[in-house]
Design goal:
By secondary structure, this protein is an all-alpha fold. The protein has helices at about 40-50, 70-85, 105-115, 130-155, 160-175, 175-180, 190-195, 220-225, 225-240, 250-265, 275-280, 280-305, 310-325. The longest helix has 27 residues, at about 130-155.
Length: about 325
């Protein structure tokens, strides 16, 4: 299967903006390979830094030793980090109380509007304070991705493979000839795809069996790097004319929803026992899909907000490594 044609971003199902989103500037097609950040390089840094918070205090910090308490803790951490993103997308940050129509009032409103522009609209000539806020916003998004790697590690799930499996499934759930320009749910196409709420959802037997560590049958650069995966997701969304729904606020809300679905899988599981002994293969598969959904939305969100997620991740990990060395 040609993954370049199988990758799909779940469309925003219930969000209907009143205006059409502006197409983002494309990433450079000839991005040097030295600037592409692989999933493996991030995983290796995380493993070196023992980011499984509880298990790093044990002699054996392999994912197989992680407990249900570890897993639920990391999901709480993910929820907390994602929650801290919300103020970045509040409309009240960008709209102000009405005043009279005087010239002074108009000037003041313009100045205030510029001062609180959303981070994805900041211009290179922005003030130092604004640039600092942009960097902080980028790092917040990077922290979400970092935590997704940590949650995956606790579950002994390869994040890159989970994303590829989920997008392969979504490619079958959303045939391009049926869903172009539409934001309907996949069940709208069940008659044609055979995929329903109870049938055809598992990725356990997915044809995607390889991890992020390379396969001669795959376009390695497109499927093992953050930048390559981002471009695949963008191209597929554009092919289906879904970019009109992909405003930052829409995608951020969709991301929040997927974190909730991940939490729902383990809300009644309790904290006792090892993950690999307590959680069934089917539930781990569902967890991998939810982690992948959050990751796909995050990659798309960073794309439309002009965030170089790969570079941000390496900055965060290098900074953490420096603190540990110190």
């Amino acid at each position: 299967m040609n993954l370049a044609h199988a990758v799909v971003l779940i469309p925003a199902l219930i969000y209907h903006p009143t205006t059409t989103a502006t197409m983002v500037n494309p990433l450079p097609q000839d991005l040097p390979s030295s600037r592409r950040i692989s999933f493996t390089s991030i995983e290796n840094k995380i493993n070196d830094q023992c980011c499984c918070r509880r298990s790093r205090h044990r002699n054996d910090d392999a994912p197989s030793t992680c407990t249900m308490s570890d897993l639920r803790d990391e999901i709480f951490h993910l929820g907390a980090i994602v929650g801290r993103l919300c103020p970045l997308f509040l409309n009240e940050r960008h709209h102000h109380s009405q005043c009279d129509n005087s010239v002074d009032c108009a000037v003041e409103k313009e100045q205030r509007s510029v001062a609180v522009r959303p981070f994805w609209e900041e211009h290179p000539s922005s003030s130092d304070n604004a640039k600092t806020e942009v960097v902080a916003a980028h790092h917040q998004l990077g922290q979400v991705f970092l935590q997704l790697f940590v949650v995956s590690r606790v579950c002994a799930i390869d994040l890159c493979t989970s994303i590829l499996k989920k997008v392969e499934l979504n490619g079958r759930k959303y045939p391009v000839e049926l869903c172009k320009g539409k934001s309907g749910k996949y069940t709208n196409y069940s008659e044609h795809t055979g995929i329903t709420t109870t049938e055809g959802q598992s990725t356990i037997d997915s044809p995607i069996k390889t991890s992020s560590h390379g396969d001669n049958n795959l376009d390695e650069d497109s499927t093992t790097t953050i930048e390559g995966m981002t471009m695949l997701i963008r191209n597929f969304a554009n092919e289906r004319q879904w970019h009109r729904y992909h405003t930052p606020r829409n995608i951020a809300l969709a991301l929040l929803g997927e974190v909730g679905e991940l939490a729902e899988l383990f809300q009644w599981s309790g904290d006792e026992g090892l993950v690999q002994e307590v959680v069934s293969e089917e539930t781990l598969d569902k967890a991998g899909q939810e982690i992948a959904d959050v990751s796909i939305y995050l990659l798309r969100l960073c794309d439309v907000c002009h965030v170089p997620l790969g570079e941000v991740m390496m900055e965060l990990l290098d900074a953490t490594e420096g603190r540990h060395d110190g």
